[in-house]
Amino acid sequence: MSEFATPVPAFSDAEIQKLVREIYGIDAAASALVGDRDQNVALKSSTGEKYVLKIANAAEDVSILALQAELADHLAAVDPSLGIAQAVKSLSGASIPQITAKDTDGTHAVRLLPFVEGQLLAHTPRTLSQVRAIGAYLGRLTRALQSFGSPVAHRPDFMWSLDNATGVESFAGDILDPADRALVEREFFRYKLRCKPHLQGLRKSVLYQDANDHNIIMQADDPDSVAAVIDFGDVAYGSTVNDLAIALAYLLLDADDIYATARALISGYVGVCPLQPKELEILFDLAAMRLVMSVCISSNRAKDFPDNDYLTISQAPALACLRRLDSLNREFLSCFARHVGGCEIFDGQRNVLASIRSAGKSARSLLGIDIQSAAKSLVSMREGARGAEYIEDQSQYTSWLTECMAREGSEIALGTYLEDRTCYQMDQFQSEAGESRSVHLGVDVFAPAGMSVHTPLDATVVSVTNNDAALDYGPTIILAHNGIPGEGTKQPFYTLYGHLSLTCLKTLKPGQKLAAGDKIAEIGDISVNGGWAPHLHFQVMTSLLGEEGNFFGACEPSVVDVWQQITPDPNFIMGLAPESFKYDPLGPDQLLEERSQLMGPSLSVSYDKPLKIVRGKGAYLYDHTGRQYLDCVNNICHVGHANPRVVTAMAKQAAILNTNTRYLHETILTYSDRLLATLPDNLEVIYFVCSGSEANELALRMARNATGREDIITLDWGYHGNTAGLIDISPYKFNRKGGTGRKDHVHIAKLPEAQAAEPIDHYLESVQQGILASIDRCGDGPAAMIAESISGCGGQVVLPDGYLKSAFEMVQRAGGVAIADEVQVGFGRTGKGMWSFVEQGARPDIVTMGKPMGNGHPVAAVATTRRIADAFANGMEYFNSFGGNPVSMATASAVLSEIEDKQLIAHADAVGSYLMDEIRKMSAEYPAIMDVRGRGLFIGVECTGTLGGDIVSFARDRAILLSTDGPHNTVIKIKPPMVFSYADADTLMAVLKDGFAHLSP
Ligand SMILES: Cc1ncc(COP(=O)(O)O)c(C=O)c1O
Fold first, then answer.
1. d(Cα 480, Cα 459) in Å, to the nearest integer?
2. Distance separating alpha carbons of residues 827 and 832, to the nearest angstrom
3. How high does pLDDT run on average in the chain?
4. For the segment 89-105, what is each residue's pLDDT rounded down to a tens digit?
5. How far is the CA of 916 from the centre of ligand 1 (A)?
6. Which residues contact residue 328 at a Cβ distance below 8 angstroms, ignoring those fewer than 6 apart?
7. Probe residue for ligand 1, chosen from 603, 698, 719 as the CB with the greatest number of ligand atoms within 8 Å
């Protein structure tokens, strides 16, 4: 007969007092304690010591009691702080003396244990720090037990051993309630599926196996600290993780919040005693199994001892807890435990995340429109957010949103990932874990019903389901995507598309293969999509957690950290600018208003609808709503906006030193050397300044110093800078709005028409006239002629062959200096070499450069001949506070390296030629395009009337940035960062084609 089938011993108080006196020599008063198989008695000696006397069941195996005594001695030696009570020896020196009951022939082993001071866990208020302390205590206990071994501890048939769970499976039939029985049977099924196959591989050690709230003693003065555990009756060898699982089972019985309790317990435990991923993975299954065992055993014993309430005392809470656990996704609980235990949520999950990030780099748009460049609004479903008052009535919400998007001119509106949505309080979002599932796990893309939805990646259809319950997803697609080869994994990841129209239910089949960009569905309307304003719920999953056809779209706030591993940010695939998900309260209107207060009105702003640009990357700019614009007009951020190499070089040097040229520094010398090497040999000396204007101003001073003259010949419609002296030599300024006309010392040489009809002598004649006029005016001719090698402000005009060469030579022959202004067109923009004057065959005495030189950092330069530099050194110091400082030099060096290493000059030539060819082909259809011209990535499209400006506005609305130039602003100028790609050229072309088709007269 087993000890379970044998009645609990029943010695009277008088008998007990007598035997305690006889065996231990202690006079003590006795009072009964509860016990399910031992008779337990509290004793208080006449001298005040407290003990617990345990009179074992007659069927108890004495060798197990000896094992417990041995174990207590071991634990006391290895970790005395565990507070494990060691048995008091009898007068004859025995740890486990034997007694015989009067009225039965059974012998009973007796143990006298010092009473452990403190309070039963069962009698203390439950707090998370207490649970964490229990976890840490059990971790210490596990560690101490790991160094204990005894053959007696191997109890393969011990009924309470969790490793032997299926030993009590037959008792399930004793559970009277059929629903409870089914619940328990489900748990056995899960156990066999999820735990059994792994048991052999788990770490083993001697286990305590009974951390329940009547065996854990908390400190008397601190209910959050563990004093000790008592009752080692269930000690047995088994899977190490079982002790934690058993404690978890008992603690969950009265836990309000399953996740918080489990997190506290596991994290406390692993902080002391790390667990292996598999142990954590099955922790909740083992905990549930412990509850199942307790229900099975008590149900079985209830048959034989119908009067023993203690047997069934824990059954009701155990069943209630099992029902809660049964309602939660068990694979999620595995992920949760693994995550809290410090492991990846499933084997290979980090690789899956890496392949999602990598796949995102080449993902296609989710919708029929390009969501990156689409104009966007941002919506929120938090309490108090705009429109929140309509959320309860989704048709009203739809109207509100449609109006809001029309007002903001947006094509889509976004609802954010991980938003804690107060609106998710309905029944569907309640969780048995203790919180409601209010945190949104996808991204919502609100767009008109009927807009097409596309797979962003190659895919296989996993499921197409109509989840048609109210407020569910409606038609839902789940796709699988293979890991990317080379990323070290082939494990799939998944994407989910919810709230679709009904069509996909017919057109897609599980198993169907799809190519990136294939249309899979349309956005559904409120009548079919679960009852929501039309939108796509897009979500990415690293695991389906065993779910089929549907998947969690929201989670409990306390477990967001785990869900982030299961449903990572969908934007890894969507690739939207981060600004798309943050509301910026300071929009363009507010900034414009403030700017008009604080800044001078002569500053202009691009576009009728000005842009607030907040970030740049490569050839792209991003506005405050995250809308991506293709920048086709910024020739300053030459090697790409926010070029990482340039930014790093600049930041690195700024973190070390930034001074001026009065101190010696290598950077300026190395850079000068590199820069001069790109220029013709006659240009040997370099000066650094901070802007193109400063460079031209210095060039004029040098020319005047070297020649002792004042007059300047300038090319018509030229612009050379913003200083008083440079406005004087810039017809683009002095002959246009606000200008005061030509000054006497300035002579204008003709700018050949774009398609120069006349031979160059016709234009050179005007240079000659300038020389003569200058001689006339002051007797000795011009100090200099200044000209851009390709005219920028003049309308992207490429000068006819030989013009610049001859014009410069004429001025040089007349004793003047030739200044090539390469501020716009230098550094390889025109695709034929570093400097455009070289292509023109010109041989200037001074070259000025700026704009692209620092990729946006203010650095510019003047290169000249030794003769001119020496003449300039007439005793007056040339000092420039900033010019040539180490930061500018480090920055400019990095720009030069980027141009060289990325072969951007050849790239500009190739992409520019391609683009120009495409524009020319298009222009054949539109007589309003008068000319297409340029070199490399410096292109002009001359149009009639206001067409150029109209196209620029059209393109801005389509997220393409352009502008116009030329004397009458009729030329669309195209001069993008040099990293502009063929694909970018195609994007631009698509919009230009559309624009001309719409707007051309
Ligand atoms: C040809 C040319 N030279 C000089 C300048 C003046 O340069 P910055 O604006 O750096 O003073 C400009 C500016 O647009 C320019 O286009």
1. 6
2. 10
3. 94
4. 999 988 888 888 766 65
5. 25
6. 258, 431, 432, 433
7. 719
Q: What type of residue sits at position 810? A: M
- Give nearest CA residue, ligand 1 atom 3: 720
User: Does residue 185 sit in helix, strand or coil?
Assistant: helix
Q: What is the pLDDT of residue 487?
A: 46
The alpha carbon of residue 244 and the mean position of all alpha carbons in its chain are separated, in whole angstroms, by 34
Q: Which H or E element spans position 725?
A: helix 724-728
Strands 846-849 and 860-864: antiparallel
Distance 694 CA to ligand 1 centre (A): 9
CB pairs under 8 A, 24+ apart, for 398-401? 398/526, 398/533, 398/534, 401/446, 401/533
What pLDDT shows up at residue 431? Answer: 73
* Residue 721 Cβ < 6 Å to ligand 1: yes
Is the C-beta atom of 692 inside 6 A of ligand 1? yes
pLDDT interval class at 428 (50, 70, 90): low
Q: Does ligand 1 lie within 6 Å of residue 691's CB atom?
A: yes
Query: Is the Cβ atom of 641 under 6 angstroms away from ligand 1?
Result: no
Residue nearest to atom 9 of ligand 1 (CA): 692
pTM (2 d.p.): 0.88
For the CA of 850, the closest atom of ligand 1 is 10
Answer whether residue 485 shows pLDDT above 60.
no
Residue 697 CB–ligand 1 contact under 6 Å = no
Q: Are 488 and 470 contacting, i.e. CB atoms less than 8 angstroms apart?
A: no
Please tell me the distance between residue 928's alpha carbon and the centre of ligand 1 in angstroms.
Answer: 30
Best residue for ligand 1 mutational test, from 720, 723, 975 (most atoms within 8 Å of Cβ): 720
Q: Is the CB of 719 under 6 A from ligand 1?
A: yes
* Ligand 1 contact, 836 CB (< 6 A): no
Is residue 824 in contact with ligand 1, taking CB distance under 6 Å? Answer: yes
Cα of 848 vs centre of ligand 1, distance in Å, is 10
The predicted structure's pLDDT at residue 94: 85
Confidence of residue 5 (pLDDT cuts 50, 70, 90): low
User: Looking at ligand 1, which residue's alpha carbon is closest to its atom 4?
Assistant: 720
Which is more confidently placed, 99 or 818?
Answer: 818
- Residue 939, token pair as written in the block: 């292109």
Q: Rounded to an integer, what distance in angstroms lies between the CA atom of residue 945 and that of residue 931?
A: 13
Upper half-sphere CA count for residue 900 (Cβ side, 13 Å):
10
pLDDT at 1: 41
Q: Is 833 left (phi over 0), alpha (psi -120 to 50) or beta?
A: left
Q: Ligand 1, from 729, 793, 824: best to mutate by most atoms within 8 Å of Cβ?
A: 824
Looking at the predicted structure, is the pLDDT value of residue 866 above 90? yes
Q: Which one-letter amino acid corresponds to residue 48? A: G
pLDDT tens string 546-602: 999 999 999 999 999 999 999 999 999 999 999 999 999 999 999 999 999 999 999
Query: CA-to-CA distance for 220 and 116, rounded, in angstroms?
Result: 10
Give the pair of three-digit tokens for residue 232: 């080692």
Cα 725 to ligand 1 centre (Å): 13
Query: Residue 483 has what pLDDT?
Result: 58
* Mean pLDDT, residues 605-622: 97
For every residue of 81-145, DSSP letters joined together read GG-PPPPPPPTTS-SS-EEE-SSSS-EEEEEEEEPPPSEEGGGS---HHHHHHHHHHHHHHHHHH
> What is d(CA 459, CA 118) in angstroms, rounded to the nearest whole number?
61
Q: Which amino acid is at 424?
A: Y
pLDDT recorded at residue 311:
62
The pLDDT of residue 312 is 64
Indicate if ligand 1 lies below 6 Å from the C-beta of 693: yes
pLDDT of residue 10: 86
CB of 848 closer than 6 angstroms to any ligand 1 atom: no
Percent of the chain at pLDDT exceeding 70: 97
pLDDT tens digits, 284-295 = 999 999 999 999
